[in-house]
Write a structure and sequence with these properties.
disordered C terminus, TIM Barrel, binds iron/sulfur cluster, alpha/beta, 2 domains, 8 strands, three-stranded antiparallel β-sheet, five-stranded parallel β-sheet
Length: 309
């Protein structure tokens, strides 16, 4: 990465970046020098007792945004009141703070209760990104959290289809899907490796991939239906992994992209107004929570002679 070619934002996510506060500080220095902002996610493990340890203070002040995870699993380790106290402390330190609020489903009463408590305490100043827990790895076979099939009526662009993530082994993958990060990696979703590839090379691969272009524009279920004439009501990311993982299907998707039908459909999608990025992931009723704390742009100064009589 260089000052001329760098990502706008780098996120340090789980495990727990604040277990290595000096590493986070060092990364923030390097990234700020080239003009990249840095975001950090934390489960607030240090908040079981009041106050923020000195080493952690330096790390949270070094980054541009701290995202706190709130859910029943983190609450088992750090009670909610302690977590809210820590958010207060972070804000007093001058940190911008947002919350990732996760429920068992989008209807989980935990989401409503916690949202109310956060707003009672911080007013409209702290944005919340609502998500739901999803089965990953061996848990996908347990059937604990069934995802009802959603009939496809329109394209469902994937806003995560070019969100490069550095995985635990140094591979750079195209999106933050946990299965992909953990190692289930069809070739179409691998951009390269931090050991051997420069940032410009990763950018080029991500932006020039016809497969990712299709997923960004139309989403995997639309792609399956249009390109393969296949059923379109399966699991969203599961459909993507299946398409990207089988060479024959990947070839058919590529043929569709260059066919007259594919070129026309994709051209129409390109001219459509792109939805805000959150729409791919978060139900509409929670979009407002994402925008809490956003400050409106400062009004332009009007010169005295332009003021209407
Ligand atoms: S649809 Fe595909 S590219 Fe998008 S997040 Fe899921 S697995 Fe990743």
């Amino acid at each position: 990465m260089t000052a001329e070619c760098h990502p706008a934002v780098v996120s340090l996510m789980g495990g727990e970046p604040l277990l290595r506060p000096q590493l986070a500080i060092g990364l923030a220095e390097i990234l700020h020098e080239i003009g990249t902002q840095i975001v950090m996610g934390t489960g607030l493990y240090f908040a079981r007792t009041p106050g923020i340890p000195r080493s952690i203070r330096a790390a949270v002040r070094a980054v541009d945004l701290v995202i706190v995870s709130l859910d029943i699993w983190h609450e088992a380790e750090v009670p909610r009141q302690r977590a809210l106290d820590a958010i207060s402390d972070l804000r007093e330190l001058g940190c911008d703070v947002a919350i990732q609020l996760t429920g068992r489903s989008y209807e989980d009463p935990y989401i409503q209760d916690t949202t109310q408590e956060v707003r009672d305490r911080f007013g409209n100043d702290v944005p919340l990104m609502v998500s739901k827990v999803s089965p990953v790895g061996r848990a996908t076979g347990l059937g604990l959290l069934p995802d009802a099939p959603i009939p496809l009526r329109r394209p469902e662009p994937c806003s995560g289809a070019y969100w490069p993530v550095v995985a635990f082994d140094g591979a750079v993958v195209a999106c933050c899907n946990q299965s992909v990060v953990d190692g289930e990696r069809p070739a179409e979703l691998v951009l390269g490796s931090v050991e051997s590839d420069s940032w410009p090379a990763l950018v080029e691969r991500g932006l020039n991939s016809t497969y990712l272009d299709l997923i960004r524009l139309a989403g995997p279920r639309f792609a399956a239906k249009s390109a393969l004439g296949a059923s379109s009501d399966g699991d969203y990311c599961g459909t993507c992994l299946a398409l990207a993982g089988r060479e024959s299907e990947e070839r058919r998707v590529s043929s569709y992209v260059v066919s007259p039908k594919g070129r026309l459909e994709l051209a129409l999608l390109r001219t459509a107004k792109a939805p805000p990025p959150e729409e791919g992931f978060i139900p509409e009723e929670y979009h407002e929570l994402l925008r809490l704390g956003h400050k409106p742009p400062i009004a332009q100064h009007t010169a005295p002679e332009q003021v209407p009589a």
